[in-house]
Amino acid sequence: MNGFPKIITQNFDVENAWDIEVYIKSGGYKGLRKALNMKPEEIVEEVKKACLRGRGGAGFPAGVKWGFIPKDVEPKYLCVNADEGEPGTFKDRNILEKDPHRLIEGIVITCYAVGIHKAFIYIRGEWAKIARKLERAIRESEEKGFVGKNILGTDFSLEIIVHRGAGAYICGEETALMESIEGKRGLPRIKPPFPATKGLFGYPTVINNVETLSNIPSIILNGGEWFASLGVPGDGGTRLFAVSGHVEKPGVYELPVGTKLKDIIFNWAGGIKGGRSLKAVFPGGISAPVLTSEEVDIPADYNSLQKIGSMLGSGAIVVMDDTTSMIDVLDRVVSFFHHESCGQCTPCREGTSILNRKIKRIMKGDGYLEDLDLIEEIAKLMVGRCLCPLGEACGLQVATIVKKFKKEIEESLKNRERV
Amino acid sequence: MKEEKEIVSEIMRIVQKYPNKRAAIIPILHIFQEKFGFINSEMEKYIAGILGIPPSSVREVTDFYTMFKRTNLGKYHITICSSISCHLLGSKRIADFIKERLGISPGEVTKDGMFSLEEVSCLGYCDFSPVMMINEEVYGNLTLEKVEKILKELSEVKE
Ligand SMILES: Cc1cc2nc3c(=O)[nH]c(=O)nc-3n(C[C@H](O)[C@H](O)[C@H](O)COP(=O)(O)O)c2cc1C
Ligand code: SF4
Ligand code: FES
């Protein structure tokens, strides 16, 4: 449709692509067949060449991550991050619903490359129906010999287990996710040690996002260089941009890494709803510091967004039009982080709690103008002092919203201030 | 009795999948939550006994995860998303409407036990904002009319 190569979404328009027969007919599991004839090291090399950066948020190069795993330690595990809880993000769900075998194929190739025999897919608890469908897809691929003992007649074996979460955003953080699989509360661990040396159950563990792994079959089939050439230097391939909020056509759009944010919003997602004008954007979910309408003429890739103090994160673009009240947005942001903070470290637990109290009071019309200074100060204090990126993201987001929309927030505060 | 046997064999099947028993807690709790609609300390002790861990280790898990409830939910448990993308598209109006229509606040159950309500974080369906789930079912692109129709239909279903 858009003239760009499609990797992740190539089967989205194919009817019943979640059915293994349909997937195979469309060329599915060819990547796996090819991979099993390669040396594991060759696969890791190919993925390094592809410059495939993680699609879960942090953007770490996948091949490099795999390279950190020690060869001589057994067992090793793969965790597939399907927790997708970042507000504004829904791309992984689209993959799981429409093309689960692409993910499964990616998982098998990855495990073969790294020498892993057990993989856990951690899927968010609310998606019970999707989890059951995924289990069915895994059973189907077992029956065909793509998963299980002696895959396609080789001596490589792999078991894939679907593990449902139970309603905690923080479990998307990689070490909290491992704690959660181990049957504990989802509290992020202090790093180091990193998962590559001491991960799930204390063993070397690779953790990757659903979209990251779904790219692997195409990389193996078409080569790392091909994939790298689709994006920008050091950041290869396409991305599933999930656009939501005040746009005419919310949805996922697969476009080359480095496509202009402006184009994604105004061309692909149909522009601002009802012909209104753009006010602000979260370019990578609620954790990515806000951009104003003047800042959207920028390539959507990791480095470009980092340079202007934001991030591409999970590729979730939340669009806000000129009718949006930024104090309202601030309230949604803080409510979310306050609710989802695991409470383990003081700056985040107390910070989100004070911010939440202050903003709730303002929302009720019971705040003072000076509250804004305090909000900004507390937010800034959180940055650099939290144990995991959740608290950091909250601090940075709140500080950025207040900085960029100070005038408006002050005005609405004055109007709401009790007289 | 037969039911207990089924649960035990289901639990054993789950335990086998994991390198250690404790890792089976969350999947087992899901079974209990889905079967009984809540998890009480009796169940926690029972699970702890099977897994050979202290009941407090089970409690810390049921306490942490929002999908595990200590008291019964309505026959239809409504979770409405109040995160940013849904909020931008009017989720507050929808939530207020549901509260008024059912006469309950989040965390409460209607007197007849039919409905309970909860405001939750992003459900990962922002392509269909505003969104709610009723039990395992997702309802998107909500309008007041749509919600009215859904609630009406569910109220009329009697077994
Ligand atoms: C609070 C928090 C929530 C996260 N949630 C997710 C998530 O839902 N899905 C995901 O893939 N990564 C999530 N991440 C990022 C993971 O920690 C990790 O970086 C990622 O799964 C690694 O996979 P990748 O390299 O393929 O992106 C989250 C991180 C934080 C700090
Ligand atoms: S920053 Fe927040 S979420 Fe992260 S460990 Fe600390 S309290 Fe928990
Ligand atoms: S913000 Fe409501 S489903 Fe994502």
Task: Please provide a written account of the structure.
The complex is a heterodimer of chains A (419) and B (159). With 419 residues, chain A is of the alpha/beta class. Chain A contains 18 helices and 9 strands. In chain A, the strands form 2 sheets. Chain A has a 5-stranded mixed beta sheet with strand order 6-5-9-7-8, with helices on one face. A 4-stranded parallel beta sheet of chain A has the order 3-2-1-4, with helices on both faces. In chain A, a hairpin with a 5-residue loop joins strand 5 and strand 6. In chain A, helix 3 packs parallel to helix 11 (224-230), helix 10 crosses helix 11 (224-230) and helix 16 packs antiparallel against helix 17. The N and C termini of chain A lie far apart (57 Å). Chain B has helices at 2-17, 25-36, 41-51, 55-64, 84-88, 91-102, 144-156, and strands at residues 76-81, 115-120, 132-134, 137-139. In chain B, strands 2-1-3-4 form a 4-stranded mixed beta sheet, with helices on one face. In chain B, strand 3 and strand 4 form a beta hairpin. The radius of gyration of chain B is 18 Å and the shape is elongated. The two termini of chain B are 25 Å apart. The model of chain B has no long low-confidence stretch (mean pLDDT 95). Chains A and B meet through helix 5, strand 3, strand 5, strand 9 and helix 14 of A and helix 2, helix 4 and helix 5 of B. FE2/S2 (inorganic) cluster binds next to helix 5 of chain B. Residues 54-58, 60, 81, 83-86, 170, 172-174, 207-209, 212, 388-390 of chain A line the site of flavin mononucleotide.
Chains forming the largest contact: A-B, 54 and 41 residues
Amount of helix of chain B: 40-55%
Cα(first) to Cα(last) distance of chain B is 25 Å
Separation, N- and C-terminal Cα atoms of chain A: 57 Å
- Shape, principal axes of CA atoms of chain B: elongated
Number of separate strands of chain B: 4
- Indicate the low-confidence ranges of chain B by residue numbers: none
Helix count, DSSP H or I runs of 4 or more residues of chain B? 7
Question: How would you sum up the major sheet of chain A?
Answer: 5 strands, mixed
Radius of gyration of chain A: 22 Å
